[in-house]
Design brief:
By secondary structure, this protein is an alpha+beta fold. Helices cover 14% and strands 27% of the residues. The protein has two domains: 77 residues, no CATH class; 169 residues, Trefoil (Acidic Fibroblast Growth Factor, subunit A) (Trefoil), CATH 2.80.10. It has an eight-stranded antiparallel β-sheet with strand order 17-16-15-14-11-10-6-18, with no helix packed on it. The protein has a three-stranded antiparallel β-sheet with strand order 1-3-2, with no helix packed on it. Strands 8-7-9 form a three-stranded antiparallel β-sheet, with no helix packed on it.
């Protein structure tokens, strides 16, 4: 007879084969359920989602919603900044027909009363003296009622010394220099040679014979204007084209003087002020549009040493009413 201790029996969860079988069964059931759910979902028609971009004005009452939002923003800004008047954005204009910024700022002092402007705060930019709705900045930095007067449309501008040379704006995105060419009207060259003239109201100091200023643009690129740039380090300046926008500066700096040549009949000089001339300081000089005899690129240069002569004189075809123009000083 053998004597010994009783041998304990293993529990069911200690049976490796049994546990492994149960886990495999559960896993199989989960896979089967997942596959069935996917098949059922695929069998059901799914709604087709489409995205459409619409303007606020195109939704029901969209115009009223937009106006209410802008009015609320204006009232909030006015309350936040005390006596500042905040103009709704859609009332500001930055085109050759009307430009809202007078060139003045009002960060520490109010806008000068003579400007007839209102102080507007633009976040991240500063405080600007802007013309109220229905008015535009003049040559003297004052707001005048109405848009700029268009005095000439689709005219060709030719040089007196070289009458076969016609002024043009390039249409290439990479070129901003105003040029002259005998074939400026050839459509294959990619030039705009038909110009529009917009007269700015107001005049600057008597030091410059109260000359009339214009925005010189083309019918093909109506938001680009010609202006004479100063040369740096003694180099010769050129006439460039720049896009009118809210990032430009004083409109006076983008305008062009057009005056009559003394005893010159229907010939004119065109030039830009180099610096600010509003007020009585008279620190700026006039840079006349000029064709250099040495130029081989067809560009238009500037002339600052007195009257430019026939190389800096121009004719307009067809002619326009020049009764408002003054004689070149």
């Amino acid at each position: 007879m053998e004597l010994g201790l009783p041998v304990p029996q293993r529990k069911w969860y200690q049976n490796k084969r049994l546990v492994a079988g149960l886990l495999a069964s559960v896993l199989g059931i989960c896979v089967l359920c997942s596959a069935s759910a996917g098949w059922l979902a695929a069998a059901q028609p799914r709604p087709k989602l489409t995205w459409t971009m619409v303007r606020v004005e195109d939704i029901p009452n969209g115009g009223q919603i937009k106006a209410a939002l802008r009015d609320a923003h204006a009232r909030y800004e006015a309350k936040r900044h005390g006596n500042l008047t905040v103009a709704p954005m859609e009332l500001e204009s930055y085109t050759t027909q009307c430009y809202s910024w007078t060139g003045g700022t009002c960060r520490f002092l109010d806008c000068d009363e003579s400007r007839q402007a209102q102080c507007v705060h633009k976040w991240g930019q500063g405080y600007f003296c802007m013309c109220p709705d229905g008015t535009c900045a003049g040559a003297d930095g004052t707001c005048y009622s109405g848009n700029y007067e268009k005095v000439a449309h689709a005219v060709e501008i030719k040089n007196v010394q070289y009458p076969s040379e016609t002024l043009y704006f390039p249409t290439s995105f990479f070129e901003h220099g105003v040029g002259v060419s005998e074939s400026a009207g050839n459509p294959h060259n990619g030039y705009d040679d038909k110009f529009d003239l917009y007269r700015l109201p107001g005049v600057v100091t008597a030091n410059y014979n109260d000359q009339i200023e214009f925005l010189v643009t083309t019918t093909g690129q109506p938001d680009w204007v010609a202006y004479a740039t100063s040369g740096s380090h003694g180099s010769v300046g050129t006439v460039e084209m720049i896009k009118i926008s809210r990032f430009w500066q004083d409109i006076q700096m983008a305008s062009t003087i057009i005056c009559k040549v003394p005893n010159g009949g229907s010939t004119y000089q065109m030039g830009s002020y180099d610096g600010y001339v509003t007020g009585s300081m008279g620190l700026a000089s006039i840079h006349w549009f000029y064709i250099s005899a040495l130029s081989i690129t067809g560009g238009v240069n500037e002339w600052i040493r007195g009257p430019p002569g026939p190389q800096g004189q121009w004719t307009f075809h067809p002619s326009f009413d020049d009764s408002m123009l003054h004689t070149c000083a």
